[in-house]
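ZP: hey, is the magnesium ion complex queued? I don't see it on the tracker
AM: it wasn't, my bad. submitting now with these inputs:
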Amino acid sequence: MIKLKWFGGVAGWLLPAALIAAWAVAVQNSWLSSQILPAPIDIVRSAINLAASGELTANIAASAVRAGWGLLIGGGIGFLLGLLNGLSKTAERLLDTTVQMIRNVPHLALIPLVIIWFGIGEAGKVFLVTLGVFFPVYANTYHGIKTSDPQLIEMGRVYGLNRWQLFSQIIFPGALPSILVGLRYALGLMWLTLIVAETIATSSGIGYMAMNAREFMKTDVVVLAILIYALLGKLADAGVHFLEWRVLQWHPGFKRR
Amino acid sequence: MATQAISKNSSNLALKLEQVGKKFGDLAVLEDLNLDIEPGTFVAIVGRSGCGKSTLLRLISGLDQPDTGAVYYDGQVHRRLNGGARVMFQEARLLPWKKVLDNVCLGLCKQRKDRALAALQHVGLEAKADEWPSVLSGGQRQRVALARALVHEPRLLLLDEPLGALDALTRIEMQRLIEKIWLETGFTALLVTHDIAEAVALADRVILLDGGKIDLDVAIDLPRPRHRDHPRAIELEEAILQRVLNKPE
Ligand SMILES: Nc1ncnc2c1ncn2[C@@H]1O[C@H](COP(=O)(O)OP(=O)(O)OP(=O)(O)O)[C@@H](O)[C@H]1O
Ligand SMILES: [Mg+2]
């Protein structure tokens, strides 16, 4: 039993570890040119070097700030608009068609326009991330509110809840699982947007670091940048997981594990 | 302690329906219905599925408005929700994101946790106060729903087949519990049920709804505590059943 448990914890890491080992061996024996893929140890070394010079942290910080602002603004607007359209028939009639139309424009297609509007400054990137995260948060908030259980709302009315109490005690908690799913999607789109935006026009950030390294053929830095993106994505996902675990304890699907 | 929290209500509600009618599109569910209920009585409403029992209860609770006629609480026309009436539905309708105790506290101000706990004690579930509703059994959920209704000291309790989904044993337990609490507190009770034996076991008066009207209105004059195999109970049950069955659809 104990052995099985130990195995369960480690099992997921066996394959990645094997892949990294194979990779290291392949580069070591020159089966693979280090121009194409540098040895894992080289990547670690360049990470240490970049971290020591402060370049790495500065670039991560620049990316994180963009991501954060974009998420805050786009997610905030999406959340509020989702609430509004979910709760008010009038607002829904006025706004939902427009929002659905905006959705059909792939936000990355706006990059040329955004560069004309904002140049290569921060605003353009934040704007793109805002657009990217807006829709998943909007759609899932709206859906969550719309699908709240009419039986529970009726019960709340019989038990004398006022409109605010109906919202805060019945409608919103019921919509929360859906809203968090929206946040999850939004985080994925947030990094994706940032990756594209930063490789096209920037003077800082992880994407800039990667593009800059490409010009000097520093493959190790390019791979490092990719890994950092993956790590940040994982971190964001873990954050939502934690949030779900905290606020959805009542939900049979999110029981403490 | 529990009996203190849910005290005997001196002013139970007198309910009166006058020429009440309700239509859904072309379908007249209730027509010209008159009903007078003395304060503190336990009335059971039986009838075929779809005959309008739930509709009637919704009109009485104020969740819906009649198209014609009016509902009176103590002689006053009743239009708004929350006039001292509480409803227990067929499903428990507990909020899954609130602990059991907080479910019972619903619509109660925060300082009244003690009363909610007393109500839970009353239905024998104080041990589950800190659980999520999802871990309760169906019968336990209905008991929590009962506690939630009782904590408001309703003057009128409307029960829409609250025991319909329970197994036979749990049903009988719940019937006893409801009767006991009703005897202690004496609210006016209106129970919709499809189980005629249940109606005869619990009610002072059984009303048969048919064709949008009251088809039969019998007083059940059996002493309490009641026994199901009392010959008079069986006789009454049989009479009501025959009346339901002999009606052409
Ligand atoms: N909101 C509504 N819109 C349209 N028709 C309705 C509505 N509510 C009820 N009805 C109709 O009114 C009739 C009576 O419904 P009701 O729910 O009162 O029946 P019931 O006696 O409670 O039946 P059951 O024993 O199956 O619960 C049914 O034919 C139903 O289809
Ligand atoms: Mg019904």
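AM: back. Chain B has eight helices and ten strands.
ZP: great, adding it to the tracker
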